[in-house]
Amino acid sequence: MFALKELANTSAEEARRSLALMASVAADGVPVVEAVAVGGEAVVEVGGGAYYLAPWIEGDHRRGAEMTPETSFHMGEVLGRVRLALGRPGLLPEGEPRAEAPPSVGTAHERIADYLGIIGGRSELDEFDLAAEPLLRSRIGLIDACAHLRPSGALVGPVGWTHGDCQNWNLIWQGDRIAAVLDWDRVRVNPYGEEVVRAATYQCALADGSLDLECVAAIVAGYRSVVPIGAEALVDAVRRRWWKLLTSVWHLKYHYYQGDRSSDWIFFSDERLLRWWTANLDKVESVFGA
User: Fold this and answer.
1) Is the dihedral of CA 46, 93, 97, 63 positive or negative?
2) End of a domain among 149, 179, 211?
3) Which residues pair with 41 in a beta bridge?
């Protein structure tokens, strides 16, 4: 049995480069599933799309209340091994992260106004429209209230090659151990702090939007047991990640422009996380910065 992955948000060339790393990454102790070559190619381009095939692996995805401090520590260890494996000398060229300033308040307003305009122009609102519209209007007020907290200045902390999308849907668990880290087609140069914060806040988010901060702390501790990272780098990454969540409504692009409703539930899940995180910003930063 196999899993077929259609590439999105990455080129076939980038995916080929990333998938070619799997043997080296596995040798460094990261559990992976290597792509299956088809006609000698790891990535096949057909009908305008690009795909790769990998053996199916049994296991489950876990998140939130399914995590424990012990499994969280183990996840942090795996994240640390990913960093070391991708940082092996000579494996990848040196690079710089994409220079993207945190979105301005004005940019965030424009993004939200676009979708409010779409909703407002409809002759009849559906259930999603009715739920999303008040949240978007409330988000504008929240952005304005938090404008003084927008991160500024240069990135803090080390940067290097990262998995790029190390979150719950790309981790396969068997029992209390990660059996495979999936979807290596987005390997990119990023701040290491961003990789840790993004992974931890996805993995430790509970159904009500709160973060299990004990599990967050365990992920950081597990990561630091393998590779060092300073408190300043993590605190900077927390603020930048929170601001990105506050100013982004990426889910609505798929809903309103592509007719794809698969991310609808994530919009509401992220909204709950955002509200809790905003109310507990100092607490979250102190846990990562401990």
Assistant:
1) positive
2) 149
3) 38
Enclosing domain of residue 143: 105-149
When divided into structural domains, the chain yields a total of 2
Residues 183 and 56 in one domain: yes
* pTM for the whole structure: 0.91
Closest CA to 286 of 227, 219, 228, 234: 234
| Exposure letters 10-39 (e unless 16+ CB within 10 A, then b) | bebebbbbbbebbebbeeeebbbbbbeeee
Q: What are the two backbone dihedrals, phi and then psi, of residue 49, each rounded to the nearest 5 degrees?
A: -110, 165
| Helix (H) / strand (E) containing 180 | strand 177-181
Whether residue 175 sits in one domain with residue 40: yes
Which pLDDT tens digits describe the chain residue by residue (290 residues)?
888 888 887 888 888 887 888 889 999 999 998 888 888 888 889 888 898 888 898 999 999 999 999 999 999 999 999 999 999 999 999 888 877 889 999 999 999 999 999 999 999 999 999 999 999 999 999 999 999 999 998 899 999 999 999 989 999 999 999 999 998 878 999 999 999 999 999 999 999 999 999 999 999 999 999 999 999 999 999 999 999 999 999 999 999 999 999 999 999 999 999 999 999 999 999 999 98
User: Same domain for 211 and 81?
Assistant: yes
Query: Is 64 in the same domain as 116?
Result: no
Q: How far apart are CA 264 and CA 286, in angstroms?
A: 31
